[in-house]
Design a protein that fits this description.
Number of domains: 1
Distance between the termini: 77 Å
GO molecular function, one term: odorant binding
Number of strands: 2
Shape: rod-shaped
Strand order of the largest sheet: 1-2
Helix content: 55-70%
Oligomer: single chain
Number of helices: 7
Largest sheet: 2 strands, antiparallel
InterPro entries: PBP_GOBP_sf
Length: about 180
């Protein structure tokens, strides 16, 4: 019976000591510099790919937002843009602020509350189907009396046919709303 390592033969240069990492003729300084350059390159590539992901998320959000704005009546789009452009904060906060101004243009907003009865009255006058459906359905839930909840309800109705945001983007967008509700 043969030993299991019998077919393994050691190279002729092996003398039972650790083989140095650096091949003969290369200085250790050269190897260290090469390693540093390799690590820096890897870091820069990782950062560049992260930046492109952020840009694609931004483009995806812009496409989603434009789809939502296109569902507003033509006379309300300038109202939305005016508030969106002057609002401060994240892009999602600006978007919600723009929708809040649209609700206010229908005389539905009183401070932090939405007049749900008036919202039902206004619904038949709205030409855009998704917004009309939102104005019919949102007053059915008394919790939508608060502006933030009413805006979220409108968004939920408008986004039904818009391109879906990825889960990570959607999660990021709604985190600020959850924080606002909990305070």
């Amino acid at each position: 019976m043969t030993h299991r390592n019998a077919e393994f033969s050691r190279p002729s240069w092996y003398q039972g000591k650790v083989v140095p990492f650096v091949p003969s003729g290369w200085s250790r300084g050269f190897v260290m510099k090469t390693a540093v350059v390799f690590l820096l390159t890897a870091c820069l590539l990782a950062r560049a790919s992260a930046g492109s992901r952020a840009e694609s998320r931004r483009a995806q959000f812009d496409q989603w937002r434009q789809c939502m704005v296109d569902k507003l009546p033509t006379d309300k789009a300038p109202v939305f843009q005016g508030c969106h452009n002057t609002a401060a904060g994240t892009e999602m906060r600006k978007f919600r602020q723009g929708l809040e101004c649209v609700l206010d243009s229908y005389q539905l907003v009183d401070r932090n509350n939405v007049n749900l009865a008036r919202m039902t009255e206004v619904a038949p006058t709205i030409a855009k189907e998704e917004l009309k459906k939102a104005f019919e359905d949102c007053p059915k839930d008394e919790g939508n009396k608060r502006v933030a909840k009413a805006v979220k309800c409108v968004i939920d109705h408008l986004e039904t046919t818009c391109p879906q945001l990825s889960r990570s983007i959607s999660k990021i967008l709604w985190q600020s709303l959850r924080r606002k509700r909990s305070t």
